[in-house]
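Aim 2 progress update. The chain analyzed this quarter is reproduced below.
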Amino acid sequence: MTKPLNWVLFPLFLLCLSSTAFSFNEGEALTLGEQNNIEVFEKVHRSVVYVTNSQVRQDVFTLNVQEIPAGAGTGFIWDDSGLIVTNFHVIQNADKVRITLDNRASYFAKLVGVAPDKDLALLKIDAPKEKLVPIERGDSDDLQVGRKVLAIGNPFGLDATLTVGVVSALGREIQSVSNRKIGGVIQTDAAINPGNSGGPLLDSQGRLIGVNTQIVSPSGANSGIGFAIPVNIVKKIVPQLLEHGRLIRPTLGVSLLPDTLARRSGIKGVVLVEVAPNGPAGRAKLQGLKRDQRGELILGDVILRFDGEPVDTQDDLLTQLERHKAGDKVKLTLARGNRQIEVEATLAEAQ
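Predicted structure tokens:
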């Protein structure tokens, strides 16, 4: 007599169920997302470092000199020469900076250069090359909203912490510690907390796409809105810090009236105060403030546009200059008296 079909299939069902349960218990039932998280962490965590900032202070009563911890953050290995990238605010006002690698080896760092306007700092440690695992660099211009991102850092002093999220927005604007605006910033919901500053934001291939720098949070802890400086900005700045120790931008050779004073006087644009005679603006015959016979100030030129782009503040002007190099010819639209004029100036290297 032939068995009913359900009695034949039932033992097979139990066998499949048992096999599935066994696979799950053994940790083999990872989702593709989980597997990717693990692979990225294993690839990158040795490139991430712990940065501690200490300051030397003298006791006012005993006159003893003490080294006081002043903060901590994250950084990452840029290359096998020992270059370390982190945020400027992580090492700001430090007398000593110590870098701790993933293998717990610790080294005092030498300051190579800083770019406060971009909240970036470049350090160097004297460590064996075989102990250094440089991070792989990606391309932040290829990012899209919704792409998966991962952050590795040391939040609240807890080392080697991985968080996962997405690119929430692109082209954001934040303010640096020098009060300059940083444009083109990446917004993410990957958890970024105090201590994550200076750490890498990664794509799903484990490539560096940004440097975590700020969060928006009333409490100071993660609220799902974090910001990272795009890696393509970092790629441009690191060589300058390595060569000059600071960010190099071309100059017009002018001094400017503070924006608050210009607005208080009802002036729109950037007001020139002084013009260096032998600088680019001087050679282009730009005019600064003057005094009449009674000693009253007479307005000179006001920059309204730079290569056709509106210039409302000093920050706008500096942003435009950062997009050029010494020797570039630029077109300036000026307000001079009751009329607008256009002049061409050749930018010079800042001294």
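The radius of gyration is 27 Å. The chain has three domains: 48-131, 140-243, 250-349. These observations will guide the mutagenesis experiments scheduled for the next reporting period.
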